[in-house]
Amino acid sequence: MGCCNRRCGLIAGAVFGAALAILGGVLIPVGNNVIEGTVKKEVIIEPGTTAYDTWLSTTVKVFRQFWFFDVKNPIEVMQYGAKPVVVERGPYTYRTRYIPRENITFNPNQTVSFLLPQGAIFEPSMSVGPEEDKVTSLNLAVAGAYSAVPEVLHVLLQNRIKASNSSLFQYRTVKEILWGYTDPLLKGNVGLFAPYNGTYDGYYTVFNGKEDIKKVGAIDMWQGKRNLQFWNDTYCDMINGTDASSFPPFLDKKKPLYFFSSDICRSVSAGFEESMNLKGITVYRYTLQPETLASPTVNPENRCFCRNPKTTKNCTSAGVLDIGSCQNGKPIFISLPHFLHGSPYLQEAVLGLNPSEEHHVTFLDVEPTTGFTLRFAKRIQVNMMYGPSKVITVLKKVKDYTIFPVVWLNETAVVDDETADMFKKELISRIQMLEIIQQALLGIGVSLFTLCLISYCVVRRRDNQAKLV
Fold first, then answer.
1. pLDDT tens digits for 307-346?
2. Helix (H, G, I), strand (E, B), or coil: what is residue 267?
3. What is the pLDDT of residues 103-128, one digit of tens each?
4. Are residues 401 and 286 in the same domain?
5. CA 322 – CA 338 distance, rounded (Å)
6. pLDDT classification of 101: cutoffs 50, 70, 90
7. Residue 286 falls within a domain, yes or no?
8. Are residues 410 and 436 in the same domain?
9. Are residues 183 and 164 part of one domain?
10. Which residue has the higher pLDDT, 469 or 282?
């Protein structure tokens, strides 16, 4: 009787273990559906969702750090055609994106429209010196006029340069170079980012994701158009992806992320590099790929971004993008800092550059389940071009076209501790708890079933042997 009870108990244990395992197995698809449903609900851009609260908030601090290239031999460059020697100075740090989105409009076609105000507040505690620090840098007006004025009119330009006592290089404050000053040559306001404070980026129209979660955050229109008007090419004028603040949920490492940046007037892609831990949250790091600014000879898709064969070695240069057409005619060339991933001649034309993957690459750290960007570093270098001239005195000794680095910036932000804790509590912890329950039920069930089944076999064998004796 006792043996029967013992065997019956083991059979019951095995059945119970099997039931637990089955329950754990059943919970996996059920749990995945619950997780997917929760995430889809919370990443939609509409009032009351986590995505909307994050999208609307300005609590996460965004900073722009600037490093200037201080020219140490301006006289030698102009009088003897020497290569410029530069020393990096910075950072000079400003807080940006501290003003909430404006003119938010929810449209009937499941899109949201808004304006993104622009402003910059100097942060002395995060800077190497005050805004009044002076650097020797390229004369923005002279370089700009040189690019804009046809060669046949260089005589007139020379007269203006001489009359205004302008030179190829100038000694000005950080504040002036960034945000503007009254220039004697152009007799107007000149600055790399002038005007900035009080201006807007947009008008943006993005999909809210309610109809199709795969399109959440994707840009439908920018400045009222679905395509750019800068490159005169269907491919280069495409607006792809989001603004990089978030992406559709459930990331696939094998697929790149696409985003549009108005700073560089084009869409780009970033590829998965590695998984990382950010304040207790697993994130995927995506980096801008070298082929993004590759030479058209390497990446033929970039040919439509080449605007001036004369300054890009007949469109064989890598690492620079002429964005003058979207900068109101300013002859601005964009690159990665220190010409990272650029053609060797770019780095050889200016002495003192030291490109580094660690310090100069652009990256995004994205939480893979929700698609929220929790940390990013957008690193861009602003360059201008000057070259030889037979009549402009300050350029007579220049031997070749030079893409000169004026400043590089690092726009960066990271999720704060409070938001990270909320994120873990409200979403990640729930997902993890559900996964733990699933795994526990499955693990305990399988273990109990196996143990009871083995024990039953052992007991039955012993009972059979006892009967034979």
1. 888 888 888 999 999 998 888 777 899 999 999 999 999 9
2. strand
3. 999 999 999 999 999 999 999 999 99
4. yes
5. 16
6. very high
7. yes
8. no
9. yes
10. 282
CB 208 within 8 A of CB 110: yes
How long is the chain?
469
Contacts of 2 (CB under 8 A, 6+ apart): none
Question: What letters, b where the CB count within 10 A reaches 16 and e where it falls short, cover 24-44?
Answer: beebeeebeeebeebbbebbb
Q: Is pLDDT of 366 > 90? A: yes
Q: Which amino acid is at 140?
A: L
Query: Are both 147 and 192 inside the same structural domain?
Result: yes
Three-class secondary structure of residue 166 per DSSP: coil
According to DSSP, the β-strands at 373-386 and 402-414 are: antiparallel
H-state helical runs in 228-362: 344-348, 357-360
Boundary of a domain, candidates 396, 415, 434: 415
Range of the domain at 177: 60-98+120-197+227-415
Give the Cα separation of 442 and 18 in Å (integer): 9
Q: Are residues 36 and 132 in the same domain?
A: no
411 and 431 both lie in a single domain:
no
What is d(CA 278, CA 190) in angstroms, rounded to the nearest whole number?
A: 41
Q: Say whether both 36 and 82 belong to one domain.
A: no
281-299 burial, b at 16+ Cβ within 10 Å, e below that, comes to bebbbbbbbbebbbbbeeb
279 and 312 co-located in one domain: yes
Largest CA distance in the chain: 122
pTM for the model: 0.85
* 329 class by beta-carbon count within 10 Å (0-12 exposed, 13-18 middle, 19+ buried): exposed
Burial class (CB in 10 A: 0-12, 13-18, 19+), 147: buried
Kindly indicate the confidence band of residue 276, based on its pLDDT and cuts at 50, 70 and 90.
very high
